[in-house]
Amino acid sequence: MPRPPRLSPDAVAAALRELPGWSGDADGLRRSVELPSFADAVAAVVRIGFAAEAVDHHPDVDLRWRTLHLTLVSHSAGGVSELDLDLARRIDALLP
Question: A single GO BP annotation from the record (predicted)?
Fold first, then answer.
Protein backbone atom coordinates (compact mmCIF):
# COMPACT_ATOMS: atom_id res chain seq x y z
CA MET A 1 0.00 0.00 0.00
CA PRO A 2 1.52 3.36 -0.98
CA ARG A 3 2.23 5.78 1.82
CA PRO A 4 1.19 9.45 1.73
CA PRO A 5 3.84 11.94 0.62
CA ARG A 6 5.71 14.35 2.86
CA LEU A 7 3.71 17.50 3.63
CA SER A 8 5.01 20.97 2.88
CA PRO A 9 6.21 23.16 5.76
CA ASP A 10 3.17 25.42 5.24
CA ALA A 11 0.76 22.46 5.42
CA VAL A 12 2.36 21.23 8.64
CA ALA A 13 2.29 24.73 10.17
CA ALA A 14 -1.42 25.02 9.33
CA ALA A 15 -2.15 21.59 10.82
CA LEU A 16 -0.24 22.43 14.02
CA ARG A 17 -2.60 25.36 14.63
CA GLU A 18 -5.32 22.73 15.13
CA LEU A 19 -3.10 20.49 17.29
CA PRO A 20 -2.27 22.77 20.24
CA GLY A 21 -0.43 20.12 22.26
CA TRP A 22 1.99 19.43 19.41
CA SER A 23 5.03 21.28 18.10
CA GLY A 24 7.43 20.65 15.28
CA ASP A 25 7.84 21.19 11.58
CA ALA A 26 7.86 19.22 8.33
CA ASP A 27 10.61 16.97 9.77
CA GLY A 28 8.54 15.70 12.72
CA LEU A 29 5.84 16.39 15.29
CA ARG A 30 6.48 16.32 19.03
CA ARG A 31 4.33 16.31 22.14
CA SER A 32 5.17 15.80 25.81
CA VAL A 33 2.54 15.12 28.41
CA GLU A 34 2.84 14.53 32.15
CA LEU A 35 0.44 12.00 33.62
CA PRO A 36 -0.58 11.72 37.29
CA SER A 37 1.51 8.60 37.93
CA PHE A 38 3.91 6.15 36.31
CA ALA A 39 1.08 3.61 36.04
CA ASP A 40 -1.08 6.20 34.22
CA ALA A 41 1.79 6.90 31.82
CA VAL A 42 2.27 3.18 31.10
CA ALA A 43 -1.47 2.77 30.52
CA ALA A 44 -1.36 5.71 28.09
CA VAL A 45 1.48 4.03 26.18
CA VAL A 46 -0.65 0.90 25.86
CA ARG A 47 -3.65 2.91 24.57
CA ILE A 48 -1.41 4.74 22.10
CA GLY A 49 0.06 1.42 21.00
CA PHE A 50 -3.36 0.01 20.16
CA ALA A 51 -4.30 3.20 18.27
CA ALA A 52 -1.02 3.04 16.34
CA GLU A 53 -1.54 -0.61 15.43
CA ALA A 54 -5.06 0.18 14.19
CA VAL A 55 -3.64 2.59 11.59
CA ASP A 56 -0.32 0.74 11.04
CA HIS A 57 1.68 3.85 11.88
CA HIS A 58 3.83 4.02 15.00
CA PRO A 59 5.18 6.88 17.11
CA ASP A 60 8.51 7.06 18.84
CA VAL A 61 7.68 6.92 22.55
CA ASP A 62 10.01 7.90 25.37
CA LEU A 63 8.63 7.31 28.87
CA ARG A 64 10.39 9.13 31.71
CA TRP A 65 8.69 8.34 35.02
CA ARG A 66 5.27 9.89 34.41
CA THR A 67 6.09 12.00 31.37
CA LEU A 68 5.60 10.76 27.82
CA HIS A 69 7.61 12.29 24.99
CA LEU A 70 6.08 11.43 21.63
CA THR A 71 7.51 11.96 18.17
CA LEU A 72 5.68 11.36 14.91
CA VAL A 73 7.42 11.15 11.54
CA SER A 74 6.78 9.13 8.40
CA HIS A 75 10.25 7.76 7.75
CA SER A 76 9.20 6.43 4.34
CA ALA A 77 8.13 9.97 3.35
CA GLY A 78 11.18 11.63 4.86
CA GLY A 79 9.08 13.80 7.17
CA VAL A 80 5.53 14.52 8.28
CA SER A 81 2.67 13.03 6.26
CA GLU A 82 -1.09 12.84 6.70
CA LEU A 83 -0.48 9.62 8.66
CA ASP A 84 1.27 11.63 11.36
CA LEU A 85 -1.51 14.20 11.57
CA ASP A 86 -4.12 11.45 11.83
CA LEU A 87 -2.19 9.67 14.57
CA ALA A 88 -1.63 12.95 16.45
CA ARG A 89 -5.40 13.51 16.50
CA ARG A 90 -5.99 9.94 17.69
CA ILE A 91 -3.39 10.35 20.44
CA ASP A 92 -4.96 13.64 21.52
CA ALA A 93 -8.28 11.83 22.00
CA LEU A 94 -6.55 9.39 24.37
CA LEU A 95 -4.60 11.88 26.52
CA PRO A 96 -5.61 14.60 28.94
Answer: tetrahydrobiopterin biosynthetic process
